[in-house]
């Protein structure tokens, strides 16, 4: 086991973090971190006295903890997966076909939607959803700057304008009360993102959309199975877009995605567009693209979908254990006034978040949070990250630069301070391991390391 320059731990080889390799993922997402090397705590830093000293006596090696361990997941379902792969290999039908159609029915049913259209990635799900409603250059799409790049990238690729609205500091999702002020005659779409696995506040968003005749496209890439007032992600807006990137709660053996909708006409357009707009073959009604989903991915995803609820329960159980452990360690503060009132800090020095404390993820009322990520806020993030790295505990910042300040969006003319809540979140958030196979000992090791980093 070695470590690359970006602090990601991978098995056996050195890989730059932009590479695509079996167990180290790229960009926004993780990094499967597998290591069996026992770690001893650094001698120089004392452990906080109130952190369950009996959990890790000085002689006891602390377990390394990957950010995500897909090998552990695979070990439990290996036979089922291999049978599904064999089925596709025997059929020799690799693109779309019965496996994809079955997955479309199953994901649509799971998400409470009438239609599902399998596509090549979450990014392409967003792109094809926007294409299906004929988004043109100059159209405006209201969205959040605190998300993975694909949300706004898909908008900009069609020549449309991403209009960024700041987030709610408690849930990190778009702040519905700030949307109306940004609606113009050119606005066509509101694209909320259900970040980290918790749905955005959909009632006011749908109300605004109805009043202004706008389309709502849910970016549900991180949120399969999450709920808002009993309704599943992807079933409230006009379309929902899912990602099956390997790190998602329902992740394939490569890229994949799905668009869901209850609108038969939209479903038909998305289906046409994903296959170059052709129907029948070689007769092109629309200019689409190759956004097709592979049968192998669908077969793997169908196996995994059967386990998804049990995995979600495991993630929720781990979140509850973190809450207990962080609280027992005396680290937790309720969101301070600055967050409840809406963060307005323009510089780091304005931040009211007290040092030495962490704000745990806030579950908004009437939600089912599926914990794609468990993201804390902490002011001493650099210290905490250094300790986590030292202990070989996986972690990541989702996301270090909000989209309105990304170089590629400089043409939009934003400046630091324009969207302070997102900027504040980008400076303070830190994702910790939450995958279902984590043991209590591993969770305790994470909390101990955060506690030490906070000192
Ligand atoms: C919020 C969000 N939107 C869109 C995407 C894009 O999905 P994909 O990586 O499958 O293209 C992701 C995935 O990482 C995401 O997290």
Please outline the helices and strands.
Elements: E1 2-3, E2 9-10, H1 70-91, H2 98-110, E3 115-119, H3 122-132, E4 140-143, H4 150-157, E5 161-164, E6 187-191, H5 202-212, E7 215-219, E8 227-228, E9 231-232, E10 239-243, E11 257-261, H6 264-274, H7 295-328, H8 337-340, E12 358-359, E13 367-368, E14 374-378, H9 381-390, H10 420-428, E15 429-432, H11 440-454
Parallel strand pairs: 4-5, 4-6, 6-7, 7-10
Antiparallel strand pairs: 1-2, 3-11, 8-9, 8-13, 10-11, 12-14, 14-15
Helix pairs in contact: 1-7, 2-7, 3-4, 3-6, 7-11, 9-11
Pyridoxal-5'-phosphate is lined by residues 28-29, 121-123, 147-148, 150-151, 193, 219, 221-222, 243, 245, 255, 257.
Question: What's this, in brief?
Answer:
With 455 residues, this protein is an alpha/beta fold. The protein has 11 helices and 15 strands.
Would you give an account of this structure?
The chain has 455 residues and is an alpha/beta fold. It has helices spanning 70-91, 98-110, 122-132, 150-157, 202-212, 264-274, 295-328, 337-340, 381-390, 420-428, 440-454, and strands at residues 2-3, 9-10, 115-119, 140-143, 161-164, 187-191, 215-219, 227-228, 231-232, 239-243, 257-261, 358-359, 367-368, 374-378, 429-432. It folds into 2 domains: 33-74 and 308-454, Aspartate Aminotransferase, domain 1 (Alpha-Beta Complex), CATH 3.90.1150.10; 76-302, Aspartate Aminotransferase, domain 2 (3-Layer(aba) Sandwich), CATH 3.40.640.10. The protein contains 11 helices and 15 strands. Helix 5 links the parallel strand 6 (187-191) and strand 7 (215-219). Helix 2 (98-110) packs parallel to helix 7 and helix 9 crosses helix 11. The longest helix has 34 residues, at 295-328. The protein is globular. The protein starts with a strand and ends with a helix. Residues 1-54 have low confidence and may be disordered. Residues 28-29, 121-123, 147-148, 150-151, 193, 219, 221-222, 243, 245, 255, 257 line the site of pyridoxal-5'-phosphate (PLP).
């Amino acid at each position: 086991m070695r470590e690359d320059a970006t602090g990601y731990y991978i098995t056996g080889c050195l890989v730059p973090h932009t590479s695509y390799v079996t167990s180290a993922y790229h960009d926004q997402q993780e990094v499967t971190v597998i290591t069996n090397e026992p770690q001893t705590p650094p001698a120089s830093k004392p452990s906080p006295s109130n952190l369950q000293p009996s959990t890790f006596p000085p002689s006891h090696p602390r377990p390394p903890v990957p950010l995500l361990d897909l090998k552990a997941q695979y070990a439990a379902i290996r036979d089922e997966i291999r049978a599904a792969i064999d089925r596709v290999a025997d059929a020799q039908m690799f693109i779309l076909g019965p496996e994809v159609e079955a997955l479309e029915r199953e994901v649509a049913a799971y998400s409470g939607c009438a239609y599902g259209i399998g596509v090549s990635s979450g990014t392409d799900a967003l792109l094809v959803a926007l294409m299906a409603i004929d988004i043109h250059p100059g159209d405006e799409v209201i969205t959040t700057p605190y998300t993975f790049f694909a949300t706004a990238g898909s908008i900009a690729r069609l020549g449309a304008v991403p209009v960024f609205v700041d987030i709610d500091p408690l849930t990190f999702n778009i702040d519905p009360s700030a949307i109306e002020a940004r609606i113009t005659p050119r606005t066509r779409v509101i694209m909320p993102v259900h970040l980290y696995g918790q749905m955005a506040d959909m009632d006011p968003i749908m109300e605004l959309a109805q009043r202004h005749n706008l389309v709502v496209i849910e970016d549900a890439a991180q949120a399969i199975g999450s709920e808002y007032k009993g309704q599943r992600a992807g079933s409230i807006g006009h379309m929902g877009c899912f990602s099956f990137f390997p790190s998602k709660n329902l992740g394939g053996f490569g890229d994949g995605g799905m668009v869901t909708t209850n609108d038969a006409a939209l479903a038909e357009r998305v289906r046409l567009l994903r296959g170059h707009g052709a129907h029948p073959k070689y007769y092109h009604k629309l200019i689409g693209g190759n956004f097709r989903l592979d049968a192998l991915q669908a077969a793997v995803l169908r196996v995994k979908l059967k386990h998804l609820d049990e995995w979600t329960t495991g993630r929720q159980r781990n979140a509850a254990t973190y809450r207990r452990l962080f609280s027992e360690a005396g680290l937790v503060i309720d969101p301070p006034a600055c967050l409840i009132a809406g963060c307005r800090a323009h510089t780091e020095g304005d931040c009211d978040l007290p040092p030495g404390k962490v704000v745990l993820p806030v579950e908004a009322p009437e939600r089912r949070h599926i914990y794609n990520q468990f993201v804390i806020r902490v002011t001493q993030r650099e210290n905490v990250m250094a300790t986590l790295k030292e202990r070989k505990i996986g972690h990541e910042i989702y996301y270090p630069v909000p989209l309105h300040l990304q170089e590629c969006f400089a043409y939009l003319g934003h400046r630091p301070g324009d969207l302070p809540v997102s900027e504040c979140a980008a400076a303070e958030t830190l994702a910790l391991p939450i995958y279902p196979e984590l043991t209590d000992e591993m969770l305790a090791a994470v909390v101990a390391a955060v506690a030490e980093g906070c000192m």
